[in-house]
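Can't attach files on this board, so I'm pasting raw text. These are the components:
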Amino acid sequence: QKEVEQNSGPLSVPEGAIASLNCTYSDRVSQSFFWYRQYSGKSPELIMSIYSNGDKEDGRFTAQLNKASQYVSLLIRDSQPSDSATYLCAARRDSSYKLIFGSGTRLLVRP
Amino acid sequence: DGGITQSPKYLFRKEGQNVTLSCEQNLNHDAMYWYRQDPGQGLRLIYYSQIVNDFQKGDIAEGYSVSREKKESFPLTVTSAQKNPTAFYLCASSIRDRGRTEAFFGQGTRLTVV
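---
Top answer:
Structure tokens for the assembled complex are below.
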């Protein structure tokens, strides 16, 4: 089992809808999780971090962490065409500073 | 402006050559990382460093070497032993605090073997 897994997509949603991106993780990663957005040909940019069980909201973005089920999700409300990108889930491995990434989910927002 | 600077943006290497990718940060971060990204793939960890003069191998360290002589700098050398070096290379840094460990990325170096 990979330490951080994501569905590669693409996930296609109409403009204005809620996009839901999911990530599952193994026992080898710690409880620090991050969502990055990466536009084609560019470097990843941090959107959200979440460290404790539950929801964390920042503008149109909500990160959700469910430790019992070992998944973390990112909801994007009122999706815009400019949200079209690849979304990378990342986690710390155990208690180290290794930051491990999933393979990313490509999101397409249709105008 | 604080940030992470990678250079060059594009780099071409001939077969059998070693090349060095530069990564400099002025964020006063202790931890620094190098990742490799292949087309349509996620990021794979090459090396990381938590403090000066110390670094650890990541998942794909073979054919690469690093040094960490200064807090601000973490150069990556792609050696001739790396059989398929064409990729997008990303450097990142973070503070060394288990409670707040967001990592931030430079703009990347695109390496092509010619």
